[in-house]
Amino acid sequence: MHRASYEALVAERLEREALELAAKRRDPLSPYAEAPAPFARRRFMLGSLAALGVGALPAPRASAQALGAAVHDVPSDPTKTPGYPLADESYGTRSQFETAVRRRFKTSTPLSSWTMTPLEDGMGVVTPSGLHFERSHAGTAVIDPAQHRLYVHGMVDEPRKYTMNDLKRFPSLSRLMFLECSGNGLTEWAKPTMATVQFTHGLTSTSEWTGVPLSAILNEAGLRPGAKWLLAEGGDAAMMTRSIPLAKAMQDCFLAYGQNGEALRPEQGYPLRLMVPGYEGNINIKWLRRIEVSDAPFMTREETSKYTDLFPDGKAVQFSLAMEAKSVITSPSGAMTLDGPGFREITGLAWSGRGAIRRVDVSTDGGRTWRRAALQAPVLPICHTRFRFPWQWDGREAVLQSRCVDDTGYVQPTLGQLIAVRGLNGPLGSVYHLNAIQSWHVTTDGKVTNVHDY
Amino acid sequence: MHRASYEALVAERLEREALELAAKRRDPLSPYAEAPAPFARRRFMLGSLAALGVGALPAPRASAQALGAAVHDVPSDPTKTPGYPLADESYGTRSQFETAVRRRFKTSTPLSSWTMTPLEDGMGVVTPSGLHFERSHAGTAVIDPAQHRLYVHGMVDEPRKYTMNDLKRFPSLSRLMFLECSGNGLTEWAKPTMATVQFTHGLTSTSEWTGVPLSAILNEAGLRPGAKWLLAEGGDAAMMTRSIPLAKAMQDCFLAYGQNGEALRPEQGYPLRLMVPGYEGNINIKWLRRIEVSDAPFMTREETSKYTDLFPDGKAVQFSLAMEAKSVITSPSGAMTLDGPGFREITGLAWSGRGAIRRVDVSTDGGRTWRRAALQAPVLPICHTRFRFPWQWDGREAVLQSRCVDDTGYVQPTLGQLIAVRGLNGPLGSVYHLNAIQSWHVTTDGKVTNVHDY
């Protein structure tokens, strides 16, 4: 049964296989059970990348290099040609055949802008650090960690100044946690505008963050009686500032210097970021350089003229900080094409800024009927949760939706329910905190598009 | 209390701070409680990298570029200079100031060799994919995923051939899981030979892997009566082959195409790797191209002449597949220097191929007394678990050790206990499956070295 007999054996059996395949119906989860053709996702991806000028297989070299991959010759038989040698020192890159990228929402300047995670390419819950979404107001600051200082002052017994080495000597914690920009989906309130889940939902990502509890730092400075809020200030050219309730700061905030097992990435605030679990991304101040304790919020630009929620009666709600429960199907999703009926796994992500996801239901008929999806363990609070749902597509029109419930009992609303409360009064419709159920329409020829009104 | 008053306020208060710091003793976990000097770790790292020719701050540019970082000008005041713009398409890199690398154990050829994860730089449990250890027997194969096929044959009802797209249509799973080469620490049996934890323990890493359960594939092929083992064969030039008990294959093995939220990295077997949870790294066949089902093990080179354990009586044990419970303190660890007494957090990793870590104890006196360390949640089976232990170093000689217990009740042995059973008969002493307690000696001047005999 060894190598000598292998070629003959495979040849003989695979001849039979082609005939037997169609007759084979043993495993209802088999992709062959009803549809022999492979899933068309890869073909879509290459097509769309080619349209963007990234290039297409079988000549991926230039594009792969531009995307940071080491590029090697591809042997016709990799068992007959040695691979490339292991380097004495290395920091590895992905395969030259992989092309997923963050993509920028085309704001008027790339200095105040955002890029979005390709959720359709994601697997599991960890977002590769190189694909974590970005949102900056004055570009990505370049800071030498040896020069960086954190000041803590205001209503404290003793103001403090910390180097990065000082902070790394405190007791540490790690936490798998999502971040989400409160502007995620901002163009989608009134009508569907974006083709892909990257652009409808890609302002959220999950990393394992490591740092020091903010309570340890505040306890060392000593909080004065009457202290109720703090200001966090970034060290970038935007000097981003936001106010945080002191109770939240003492409960679970932390100062992160680590992300996915290494230093924080530059675009995530290297060398230091304030983490505010479950609160809108913007308040998780990057390049953190100053914390000022006070008895009232500071009413900064980013919590008065921006990052507020205008309601139908003309009043705006401030400090709507927690991100409510939300979910989205990432595959199949917008701009993919299914090339024939049969089995495919529906999968996606669910998350809540209030706690853990308790359940996710999936509908393939636009919300008329729902069935429970499986949640991938571990299901962690304030972390992306991967859900999976087995689907036999019968080839008819379908509308795919997911709906999550978090452990406070909150149920993700339909877009209609959300608009009934929030209205469409904001400058682009109601800009922030869109957490409605997403609908993907599947046509009889397998095309998947972003739709409303289901 | 806003920006205008900030400079004056900080200046005035920080003047007082210097005097008050020494008198301040409020928080027993404060790094200032007994020792004002910062931890010397960064200084050590730069020193050791300089010795290796990587270069040192403040001129990190060439080295950073060589290590794959985008390099930018460093402004004197990042609040006065815009950062760099967000790219339309990007796959981000780490900061130009970060220099952690995998390092190669200097085997005679870099084609059959291994590189080791810098565990001393790790945070949390996820290993950055670029720093995941490598072990290859014929270099890193370069495989076009569109051309790759997996054959399943032997004692099955119908042989099968799968493309990568076929496999991605099956139901999927994700799992945070460690891998460890059974040769991890192979030179350390008889005497301490390596200076750093990277070289004593760096052949283990954790990723979130995604793929398809092997049972789904085997069920589709149909197992014939009497089937008991399978052969997994790699598609690299080594054509690495190992035998796996069928019971294990059906229990929890899976075929991974994803790692940390993106495609498997090339050096981890792109595009497809067999995952055998808790078993020695070598059996997790990379570049997987063939699975052959049989009624007996195949007695391949890598489970007869290699990867066996020679005992004192001259007999060798084959198929010692599960990795037993093991732990190591990663900070402080070998070649670091503590620059003065005071608080520092002892932290490290524990893992078991048999299940979850139940507890970790830490000794600072060479094993005479033990105290329980805190385990970072979530504590997952067959996954690195981060432990933390607060330590006030009194400036005297110390020997730091960690000892873990897994949820089968297995207790990590001392080196003496392990040698009493295993002997030192292997070609380099007993090469494989060294899971003894590691000792780090701290001298009164703060130097940390790798020692035995404690």
CATH superfamily of the largest domain in chain A: Oxidoreductase, molybdopterin-binding domain
Strand order of the largest sheet of chain A: 6-5-14-9-10
Using the CA coordinates, give the radius of gyration of chain A: 25 Å
Structural class of chain A: alpha+beta
What is the percentage of strand-forming residues of chain A? 25-35%
Poorly predicted tracts of residues of chain A: 18-62
Number of alpha- plus pi-helical segments of chain A:
8
Oligomeric organization of the protein chains? homodimer
Greatest interface and its residue counts? A-B, 144 and 143 residues
Task: Give the CATH level 1 class of the largest domain in chain A.
Answer: Alpha Beta
Integer count of domains of chain A: 3
Envelope shape of chain A: globular
Tell me the number of strands of chain A.
25
Name the average pLDDT of chain A: 88
Structure description:
Two copies of one chain form a homodimer. By secondary structure, chain A is of the alpha+beta class. Chain A has helices at residues 3-23, 41-51, 61-66, 164-168, 197-201, 214-221, 246-251, 415-422, and strands at 89-90, 102-105, 113-116, 134-136, 149-154, 160-163, 173-180, 204-213, 229-234, 241-245, 254-259, 262-263, 273-275, 288-294, 309-310, 316-317, 326-331, 342-351, 357-363, 371-372, 374-375, 385-393, 398-406, 439-442, 448-451. Chain A folds into three domains: 2-96, no CATH class; 149-315, Oxidoreductase, molybdopterin-binding domain (Sulfite Oxidase, Chain A, domain 2); 326-451, Immunoglobulin-like (Sandwich), CATH 2.60.40. Helix content of chain A is 15%, strand content 28%. A five-stranded mixed beta sheet of chain A has the order 6-5-14-9-10. The radius of gyration of chain A is 25 Å and the shape is globular. The model of chain A is unreliable at 18-62 (pLDDT under 50). At the A-B interface, helix 1, strand 1, strand 2, strand 3 and strand 5 of A face helix 1, strand 1, strand 2, strand 3 and strand 5 of B.
